[in-house]
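Researcher: Let's try something more involved. This one mixes different molecule types, so please make sure each is placed in the same coordinate frame as the others.
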Amino acid sequence: MIAPALLKIAVEALWANRLRSGLTLLGVIIGVTSVMTIISALEGMMGAIEDDLAVLGPTTFIVTKAGGVITSHEQWMEMMKRKPIDQKSVDLVSEGCELCERTCARVSGSARLKRGNNTMRRVFIGGSTFSLVDIVDMEVAQGRFHSYEDDLYRRRVIFIGDLVREELFGDADPIGKTLRLDGTKYTVCGVAKKRGTMFGESQDDFAFIPYGTHIKQFGAPGSRGIRMLIKAVSLERLEDAMDEVRMILRAQRHVPYDKPDDFTILTADNILEALNSITRIFRMGLIGISSISLVVGGIVVMNIMMVSVTERTREIGIRKAIGARQQHIMLQFLFEALVTTLFGGLIGIVLGYFIAESLVGMLDMQISPSTFAMVAGLSISTGIGIIFGLYPAMKAARLDPIKALSYE
Amino acid sequence: MTLIETKDLWKTYTMGSEQVHALRGVTISIEKGEYVAIMGPSGSGKSTLMNLIGCLDTPTQGEYYLNGKRVSTMNDDELAGIRNREIGFVFQTFNLLPRASALHNVELPLIYNGSASADRAAQAESALTKVELSDRMHHKPTELSGGQRQRVAIARALVNNPSLLLADEPTGNLDSKTSIEIMRLIDDLHRQGNTIIIVTHERDIATRAHRVLSILDGQIASDEVTSEDRRTVG
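Model: All components are placed in one shared frame. Result:
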């Protein structure tokens, strides 16, 4: 019954001191906005990475010499000493693994692509067997990916990313046209569907050539080895397929039964997990730093509340004389702090969301309003209102009515 | 029926190493419906006595019963409740909230006793009508004359139908013409059955009351009934 009346008194007091309340509000808004911007942007970035990894598909896994989360120098040194995955491993897996639907070898390099006067430097050139297109989610926009025959005869055909097409061919139809890869002539067989950008970097500046052609062009993969992309027959058998591959490779590489694997198997899930554990620290750090501005906002609230209590000592005396209990005075001032921080929190959430969206928009990422960020923003700002408003409110509530009434 | 009964009230303040006795054993009894003036020079302890009677403070020693309730041992919140229900204050400096309208000022005691919003407005309006300010309800104190402000304060003191109207130098900040006007209003309130205690150092004001308590050096120096009209209600 009394609380709504006290809330009204609090709002009227805030309104009567508009400039001061506005400045306090600004302090809270800046704090909440910065935290919201960071949380929203981080969530958006993680979302983008997750989308990107979804390209791998849930049933696909990668076998590589070294990878995953490396947490120590020793681990890194151990990985560097490992034998590379070689052609024999690929052959053994593709012949021996019953639960593997498709197996594909992939090597990588980088080269300069040139057509006429248009040149692109340091373009990622993947070399893979024809089945790659069935394993990863790479859609063909025009033409085709290379075929079994292209692999077999080591034909000089090239499948290009959308950015490569745009830079080298512009609006012209590239299929059947030629380009030069480090001076060697290749014929374009197909173009990949546009994938867009991530972190402001295009995802379309790549090209793939047949596996055999890649070996001929760039030489044997050497110590970096081959990366195997394997698609299991089904999601249910994914773990079993990974075990089968593990058995085959351990046998081939003569790993004693009591030693760990000397190669790494990665799935989209564990890549994501690794990424999460890295970003968690990053995330905590960023949120921690931006929280400082929230604390500053809280101190502004407290400071103003202290001034307000001192300034209104006489008012408090009058209220107490006519029967206000301690809790009534306390609620009145706590409401002032809470209304300020809640209102500031709401504005901060909206602002933070839009800032995050425009920031992320520059990087071409999708960002959705995060419930977590909103709940966090509101509870943080409410918490600040209570924590920093409590002391001034208690100070007001405990004033001696006689002293307060004679305060000048 | 006895409204106020104090037994051997002492109030001692410690100033540095010195103990100052503002009241030294005050025993008084005031009936319902009385019109009492408390007189005394400054420093006599009359303000301290008023604070104790008004439940703004508690005695160091002694007992105080208001309307049969022992208030001398109550805590801060219990005293607030008593002030809200039993006592209406009128101060020398009016003590109105400067930013609030007359109506809102009068409503205040009702907020703290938990009255519903609609009841509050109706009661406050009726109290303001009683002090003939129905046409000034939405004015702020700064837009009112001194006499009008004091009448708003009186309306606020009466809005809760308290057992006691406690006025501390109610005409101290007013010119003589307005003082008479306010005192007439207080006289009227007494005639309507309100118990009134008025603290003053002016003889003319005190003579309007029917009983004058003089206080000197923290003790009752004299207690004289000045009018046969000392009446008891209930």
